[in-house]
Amino acid sequence: MRCGVVVFPGSNCDHDAYHVLKHVVGTPVEYIWHKATSLHRFDLIILPGGFSYGDYLRAGAVARFAPVMPEIIRYAERGGRLLGICNGFQILLEAGLLPGALIANHHLRFRCQDIYLRVANSRTPFTRAYQNGQVLKMPIAHYSGNYYADAETLRRLQEENLIAFQYCDRQGEVSASANPNGSQLNIAGIFNAQKNILGMMPHPERAAEKILGSEDGLGIFKSLVGYA
Amino acid sequence: MWKAKVIVTYKPGILDPEAKTIQHALQTLGYSTVEQLQAGRYFEVTFGAAVKKAAAQKQIQEIGTRILSNPVIQQFDYTLEECTG
User: Fold this and answer.
1) B12: domain CATH number?
2) Lowest mean pLDDT among A32-41, A106-115, A147-156, A175-184
3) Complex ipTM, two decimals?
4) Chain B hits for A183, Cβ within 8 Å
């Protein structure tokens, strides 16, 4: 199992993801510089959170044209596992690797807080350590996390079980009051049709050790490492 | 030289929280005649002297679709005008 964490100018969760893989999960991991144009063989690549290129224009809009991206797109098209967290999710959407878009939170405030997530599909390489309906606690930290997709796309996401996580309350109820940003269907994370790409706004890498308040996010990394 | 003036807005039907907040602010300030407000972003893109009008048109179409807007949620419009330096 060989993992890579992409480093864009402005990434700030790259070290957290690296730390969890190397020191908590105990698997080989290396950084991938945004200017790299040829990649080693990887079993997992993470697009980390942060503010790549200052989030100028739109979050993720400039990063998707970074020199490393064509190689990452080829990797994903070959079935390589790709996880985008927060800004990484925004980049995946801008690059067209996942459907829909993320717009400003409906209340126009940056939200940095713990939230609850309901696991909507645990039968994937990213989520197999969880049970369907399991409630996870993880932090969010974003301004543009309001998931939008047209009605046809939302219907397809539901029919094909491509919703990974939905915002919920402590009891696991997916409700408007538990929605921290206005996302349609309370969507917090989605898969592509082949389920080798996951994009999510919450930060599992910040919730992978008890000392940090929650280790509910560790299941994603354990699912992936166990799968390879 | 050709200069493109590009305006990017949200597509109809997509709720723009920023526009909605500005609209509410206007109504709170007493501008009760305001019925609707749409927000957007404005760009001026000036091409080099060697670029002919048709080429500028083609490029601004491409730039608008690929970069300045996200076609999933946004639309763009532009005007092209001749300018000096």
Assistant:
1) 3.30.1280.10
2) A32-41
3) 0.86
4) none
Residue A78: pLDDT band with limits 50, 70, 90: very high
How distant is the Cα of A126 from the closest Cα of chain B, in angstroms? 26
Residue from A81, A80, A88, A46 nearest A63 by CA: A88
Its domain, for residue B63, covers 2-82
Which residue in this structure is represented by tokens 């940090």? Answer: A212
Give phi and psi for B20, each to the nearest 5.
Answer: -65, -40
Q: Within 10 A of B46 (CB to CB), how many other CB atoms are there?
A: 13
Q: Where are the beta strands (DSSP E) in chain A?
A: 3-7, 29-33, 44-47, 81-85, 101-103, 111-119, 135-142, 146-148, 163-168, 187-191, 197-200
Test mutation, B22, B70, B74, B75, chain A, max A CBs within 10 A: B70
Span A147-185, pLDDT tens digits: 999 999 999 999 999 999 999 999 999 999 999 999 999
Q: Do B67 and A182 touch (CB under 8 A)?
A: no
CATH hierarchy code of domain A3-227: 3.40.50.880
CB contact under 8 A, A61 and B16: no
Catalytic site residue A94?
A: no
Q: Tell me whether residues B72 and A103 touch, CB distance under 8 A.
A: no
As for how many domains chain B has, the answer is 1
User: What's this model's pTM, rounded to 2 decimal places?
Assistant: 0.94
